[in-house]
């Protein structure tokens, strides 16, 4: 009854579909006939009439979906948006990885504003959200009430795609070495090197060179795994975890010059929140790292969870050093790695 009353009290419906075609739900077996998705990670195709996009609807979409990613060294939008009128929404565009389709029309079906979440409607691993309303005012009400959920859904979809990619293209040798030595199972991307593998500390690095401005520049993605005894619930407080982090990094992650080491930057306060991994409690910290006595830094994400069988806390964190490039997608990749952590 509570759930029924809740549905009656809402001003619109959120409907979930999985593996849909244009006529409705299709069988799971037909997924094999869907094409692969197109587009780059973090891109969303906005299907809406151009005159509507150029007004308050487009302004609201850009304000919320291109807002700054928190705790980055410089401004980077949460998503890249590309508007297309419905007349161009053909078989070339339909397989796009992320789609928001907006239909504002005098449609009897939209008397109750609708927000539909459709997975794999036109392509594998695709996420499409349709908002059907009778007016711009109704759009603003639906969208602004649900924008945080929409952001979460698109971020989760991108994370799932990244995990699937690393399941196919991974460094099995390093992955198996960590599993054998530390009883920690984790995706390890290809082209990674195992820099350190001590009793309570692992350092994996993925070093690349990327071209920009006619020159090659370094990009580094790092994965750190460290463990310490689980004492009680006070272990999972923000201050405790950050103090442990700074102590372990000072001892294990040297900088490029003498008397330099990686640590946490507190120019912007790191963000701490509880999360769910494999239906178990864990914590996430996002923030900025820096090198003491050297000019280096970037974003990091840290995940900690309890290994009850062994009475320990294991922290896996990923960091990005890419001073000449945007870091959003590099950070998303290391997030996928650290959130794949499981215990043998």
Taking the sheet with the most strands, its summary is: 8 strands, antiparallel
Beta-strand share of residues: 35-45%
Mean pLDDT: 91
List the domain count as a whole number: 2
What is the highest CATH level, the class of the largest domain?
Alpha Beta
> How many helix segments?
7
CATH architecture of the largest domain: 3-Layer(aba) Sandwich
Tally of DSSP β-strands:
18
CATH 4th-level superfamily of the largest domain: Mog1/PsbP, alpha/beta/alpha sandwich
The end-to-end distance, rounded to whole angstroms, is: 42 Å
- Class by helix and strand content? alpha+beta
Identify low-pLDDT runs: 1-12, 17-29
Global morphology: elongated
CATH-assigned fold name of the largest domain: Protein Transport Mog1p, Chain A
Assembly form of the protein: single chain
Q: Percent range for helical residues?
A: 25-40%
Query: What's the SSE pattern?
Result: HEEEEHHEEEEHHEEEEHEEEEEHE
Radius of gyration in whole Å, from Cα? 22 Å
Explain this structure.
This protein has 344 residues and is α+β, with helices and mostly antiparallel strands. It folds into two domains: 10-167, no CATH class; 170-343, Protein Transport Mog1p, Chain A, CATH 3.40.1000. Helices cover 27% and strands 36% of the residues. The protein is built from seven helices and 18 strands. β2 and β3 form a beta hairpin. Residues 1-12 and 17-29 have low confidence and may be disordered.
């Amino acid at each position: 009854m509570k759930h029924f009353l809740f549905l009656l009290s809402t001003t619109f419906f959120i409907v979930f579909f999985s593996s849909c075609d244009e006529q409705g739900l299709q069988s799971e077996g037909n997924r094999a006939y869907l094409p692969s998705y197109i587009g780059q990670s973090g891109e969303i195709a906005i299907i809406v009439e151009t005159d509507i996009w150029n007004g308050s609807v487009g302004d609201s979409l850009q304000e919320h979906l291109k807002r700054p990613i928190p705790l980055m060294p410089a401004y980077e939008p949460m998503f890249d948006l590309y508007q297309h009128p419905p007349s161009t929404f053909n078989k070339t565009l339909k397989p796009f990885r992320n789609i928001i389709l907006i239909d504002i029309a005098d449609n009897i079906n939209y008397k109750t504003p609708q927000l539909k979440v459709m997975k794999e409607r036109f392509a594998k691993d695709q996420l499409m959200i349709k908002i059907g309303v009778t007016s711009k005012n109704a759009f603003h009400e639906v969208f602004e009430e649900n924008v945080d959920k929409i952001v979460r859904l698109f971020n989760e979809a991108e994370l799932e795609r990244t995990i699937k990619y690393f399941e196919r293209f991974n460094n099995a040798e390093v992955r198996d070495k960590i599993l054998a030595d530390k009883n920690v199972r984790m995706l390890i991307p290809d082209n990674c090197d195992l820099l350190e593998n001590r009793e309570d500390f692992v350092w994996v690095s993925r070093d690349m060179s990327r071209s920009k401005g006619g020159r090659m520049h370094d990009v580094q993605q790092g994965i750190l795994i460290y463990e310490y005894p689980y004492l009680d619930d006070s272990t999972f407080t923000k201050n405790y975890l950050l103090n442990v982090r700074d102590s372990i990094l000072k001892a294990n992650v040297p900088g490029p010059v003498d008397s330099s080491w990686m640590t946490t930057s507190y120019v912007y306060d790191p963000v701490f929140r509880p999360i769910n991994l494999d239906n178990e409690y864990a914590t996430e910290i996002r923030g900025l790292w820096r090198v003491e006595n050297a000019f280096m830094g970037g974003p990091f994400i840290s995940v900690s969870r309890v290994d009850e069988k062994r009475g320990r806390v294991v922290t896996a964190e990923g960091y990005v050093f890419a001073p000449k490039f945007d870091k959003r997608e590099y950070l998303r990749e290391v997030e996928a790695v650290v959130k794949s952590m499981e215990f043998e």
